[in-house]
């Protein structure tokens, strides 16, 4: 460039406004308007990570102990080089509404020392042990069978292997009703009719029989199924049976041609069947994890009220709520382990609790708003136990159970105070868990009741 | 003359510890409310720091926080507390979703010699107020915690939350987040682990997003607030 041109440049500089050459505006904080504070960012490391192309480090721990100690010491130094240690607070339970789990039990023991003013809702005493144990030899360890039923006549009918026994709960007498000859057939489902005059027995080889218990005589043989009958339910004079042949048959037991309707909807064995208390709805649970709700007046293979597919395992446990007429509780098998509460009017799941164990039976407490669940196999908790849940909050009130192996069936006494659990350990255990029946309950202090309760679990 | 100091207030070590632990109690309540860890109905409004602050009415949570702050106060007076972290985890997967980190710098001279400092109470309250406002407005950029429902949310980036005046975001906080929270304390190594605490891992988040909030200083303890959270899938472009 020649001299004159350079001169011209310099001259033009004089006319440029001074503020363009000023230093940029200073902000109050170090950083920019995008990230107000960059002190957190390790820009060198970030750059390194972005541009580094070396393969990931293969960390095989072949370090010796001394080196590892050194590492630990250094890793517990914070950014300023100060050593520190980390503690987590385990002082008291974080919510008085949380269900009591094993982990929280330890916390609560400590909390009881601290919490002098925590609200103590008085609760009734739940028995730790069973009232009675009956020996049940040859009881079949079959999840799908429903081999117990306690009728309004106070007689418990239970199928042990190929034999069916009647146990009178008033005088404890035992009477053998029937024995299936051969060796390849046995009862798989037993249900008393509502007036407890007839006993319906479904068999492995697909036969369905009606017995009159007064005279110990077989009244009728009902045909229709081609697979074992694992579940039956009475609705007045209709007996509904569900079978491994995937069909549900409604039998009219007074008509000569008993087949009222045959429903083929399930894709696998029908393992749970329950009519609602009013008799207008039927809930059927299948081994294909589906739960169907049917309307009594319009039941056919294509006409169902709801198809509920929330469960991830067989739906065997079904129980209709005695105080809310549209509410149904269902329990899933091993891979599911959830108790789900449904509004069958809308077909919506109101609540779902994970119990992490196979659920084989559900019984509602008619005297207090609770539901009891019986459990079988489990990977984690609640194995072989009976769990009591408060309704509708579904918080766990407690658990019982001394069964040595999984519980297969649950059934409730006609007065609604006792529950029997049939276990694969060949015992029938009676639990007085639903009482007392009146409103004037024995008020035991909350913590007292639970503390004594917990020690039995920790055993 | 009134016995209260005029203009500048004297702060003792004990007073400062009380201020910081009380701050933590209110901040924890605010976080539990704003992040939906407990249902809204279980909180009640009180006036504190010149703001309507929400405190839980659940007896269990109340006693948990009060026992916690009592212990923190003790450690603060001894000058042994380095930081307090409130961790929010998913109940289902036990994965850490959020970490609210409060780092504490203690003036060693005050702990050793027992001197006191001067700072106006009002000033401290103003600083705390700013932090509380930031916690409340953090919901504008923190990812939704409710599960299994996925709620649509817009992320406003890391901008200073005080500029959030023009944004109106409604998040479905009536959906209860089924999560748990834990409180970690980082202390000096010579502190004995008390009965109600156990040694723990730091419960870190892998590749977190971090936002630094305001800090406050009592001239004896300086508290910095930082929230780090798990990267939401929505953010990854």
TrEMBL record, chain A:
<keyword id="KW-0853">WD repeat</keyword>
<comment type="similarity">
    <text>Belongs to the WD repeat CDC20/Fizzy family.</text>
</comment>
<dbReference type="InterPro" id="IPR001680">
    <property type="entry name" value="WD40_rpt"/>
</dbReference>
<dbReference type="Pfam" id="PF24807">
    <property type="entry name" value="WD40_CDC20-Fz"/>
</dbReference>
<feature type="repeat" description="WD">
    <location>
        <begin position="400"/>
        <end position="433"/>
    </location>
</feature>
<keyword id="KW-0677">Repeat</keyword>
<feature type="repeat" description="WD">
    <location>
        <begin position="263"/>
        <end position="304"/>
    </location>
</feature>
<dbReference type="InterPro" id="IPR015943">
    <property type="entry name" value="WD40/YVTN_repeat-like_dom_sf"/>
</dbReference>
<feature type="repeat" description="WD">
    <location>
        <begin position="180"/>
        <end position="221"/>
    </location>
</feature>
<feature type="domain" description="CDC20/Fizzy WD40">
    <location>
        <begin position="134"/>
        <end position="431"/>
    </location>
</feature>
<dbReference type="InterPro" id="IPR036322">
    <property type="entry name" value="WD40_repeat_dom_sf"/>
</dbReference>
<keyword id="KW-0498">Mitosis</keyword>
<protein>
    <recommendedName>
        <fullName>CDC20/Fizzy WD40 domain-containing protein</fullName>
    </recommendedName>
</protein>
<dbReference type="InterPro" id="IPR019775">
    <property type="entry name" value="WD40_repeat_CS"/>
</dbReference>
<keyword id="KW-0132">Cell division</keyword>
<dbReference type="InterPro" id="IPR033010">
    <property type="entry name" value="Cdc20/Fizzy"/>
</dbReference>
<keyword id="KW-0131">Cell cycle</keyword>
<dbReference type="InterPro" id="IPR056150">
    <property type="entry name" value="WD40_CDC20-Fz"/>
</dbReference>
TrEMBL record, chain B:
<dbReference type="InterPro" id="IPR003511">
    <property type="entry name" value="HORMA_dom"/>
</dbReference>
<keyword id="KW-0132">Cell division</keyword>
<dbReference type="InterPro" id="IPR036570">
    <property type="entry name" value="HORMA_dom_sf"/>
</dbReference>
<protein>
    <recommendedName>
        <fullName>HORMA domain-containing protein</fullName>
    </recommendedName>
</protein>
<comment type="similarity">
    <text>Belongs to the MAD2 family.</text>
</comment>
<keyword id="KW-0131">Cell cycle</keyword>
<keyword id="KW-0498">Mitosis</keyword>
<dbReference type="Pfam" id="PF02301">
    <property type="entry name" value="HORMA"/>
</dbReference>
<keyword id="KW-0539">Nucleus</keyword>
<feature type="domain" description="HORMA">
    <location>
        <begin position="14"/>
        <end position="227"/>
    </location>
</feature>
<dbReference type="InterPro" id="IPR045091">
    <property type="entry name" value="Mad2-like"/>
</dbReference>
């Amino acid at each position: 460039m020649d001299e004159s041109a350079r001169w011209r440049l310099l001259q033009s500089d004089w006319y440029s406004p001074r503020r363009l050459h000023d230093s940029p505006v200073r902000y109050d904080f170090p950083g920019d308007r995008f990230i107000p504070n960059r002190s957190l960012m390790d820009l060198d490391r970030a750059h390194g990570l972005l541009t580094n192309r070396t393969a990931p480090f293969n960390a095989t721990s072949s370090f010796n102990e001394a080196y590892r100690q050194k590492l630990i010491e250094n890793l517990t130094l914070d950014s300023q080089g100060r050593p520190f240690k980390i503690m987590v607070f385990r002082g008291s339970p974080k919510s008085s509404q949380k269900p009591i789990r094993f982990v929280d039990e330890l916390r609560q023991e400590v909390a009881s020392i601290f919490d002098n003013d925590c609200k103590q809702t008085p609760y009734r005493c739940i028995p730790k042990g069973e009232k009675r144990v009956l020996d049940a030899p040859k009881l079949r360890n079959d999840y799908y069978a429903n081999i117990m039923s306690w009728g309004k006549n106070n007689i418990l009918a239970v199928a042990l292997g190929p034999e069916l026994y009647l146990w009178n709960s008033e005088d404890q007498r035992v009477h053998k009703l029937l024995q299936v000859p051969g060796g390849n057939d046995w009862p798989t489902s037993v249900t008393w009719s509502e007036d407890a005059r007839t006993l319906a027995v479904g068999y492995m080889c697909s036969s369905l029989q009606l017995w009159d218990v007064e005279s110990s005589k077989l009244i009728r043989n009902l045909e229709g199924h081609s697979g074992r009958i694992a579940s039956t339910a009475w609705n007045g004079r209709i007996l509904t049976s569900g079978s491994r042949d995937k069909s549900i048959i409604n039998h009219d037991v007074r008509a000569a041609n008993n087949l009222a309707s045959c429903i083929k909807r399930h894709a696998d064995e029908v393992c749970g069947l329950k009519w609602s208390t009013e008799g207008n709805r039927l809930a059927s649970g299948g081994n294909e994890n589906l739960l169907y709700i049917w309307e009594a007046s319009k039941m056919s293979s294509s006409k169902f009220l709801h198809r509920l597919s929330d469960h991830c395992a067989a739906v065997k446990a079904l129980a209709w709520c005695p105080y809310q007429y549209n509410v149904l509780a269902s329990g899933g098998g091993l891979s599911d382990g959830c108790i789900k509460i449904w509004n069958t009017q809308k077909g919506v799941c109101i609540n779902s609790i994970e119990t992490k164990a196979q659920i084989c039976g559900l019984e509602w407490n008619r005297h207090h708003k609770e539901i009891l669940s019986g459990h079988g196999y489990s990977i984690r908790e609640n194995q072989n136990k009976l769990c009591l849940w408060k309704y509708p909050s579904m918080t766990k009130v407690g658990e019982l159970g001394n069964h040595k192996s999984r519980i297969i069936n649950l059934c409730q006494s006609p007065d609604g105070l006792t529950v029997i659990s049939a276990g694969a350990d060949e015992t029938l255990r009676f639990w007085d868990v639903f009482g007392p029946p009146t409103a004037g309950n024995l008020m035991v202090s909350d913590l007292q009741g639970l503390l004594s309760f917990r020690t039995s679990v920790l055993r | 003359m009134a016995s209260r100091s005029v203009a500048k207030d004297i702060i003792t070590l004990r007073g400062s510890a009380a201020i910081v632990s009380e701050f933590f109690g209110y901040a924890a309540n605010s976080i539990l409310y704003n992040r939906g860890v407990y249902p809204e109905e279980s909180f009640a409004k009180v006036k504190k720091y010149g703001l309507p602050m929400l405190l839980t009415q659940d007896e269990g949570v109340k006693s948990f926080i009060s026992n916690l702050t009592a212990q923190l106060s003790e450690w603060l007076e001894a000058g042994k507390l380095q930081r307090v972290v409130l961790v929010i985890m998913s109940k289902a997967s036990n994965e850490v979703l959020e970490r609210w980190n409060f780092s504490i710098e203690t003036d060693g001279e005050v702990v050793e010699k027992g001197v006191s400092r001067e700072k106006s109470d009002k000033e401290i309250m103003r600083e705390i107020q700013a932090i509380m406002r930031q916690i409340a407005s953090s919901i504008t950029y923190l990812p939704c915690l409710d599960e299994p429902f996925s709620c649509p949310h817009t992320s406003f980036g890391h901008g200073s939350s005080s500029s959030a005046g023009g944004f109106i975001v409604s998040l479905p906080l009536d959906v209860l987040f089924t999560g748990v929270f834990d409180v970690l304390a980082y202390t000096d190594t010579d502190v004995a682990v008390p009965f109600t605490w156990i040694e723990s891992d730091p419960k870190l988040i892998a590749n977190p997003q971090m936002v630094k909030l305001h800090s406050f200083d009592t001239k004896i303890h300086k508290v910095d607030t930082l929230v780090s959270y798990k990267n939401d899938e929505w953010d990854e472009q």
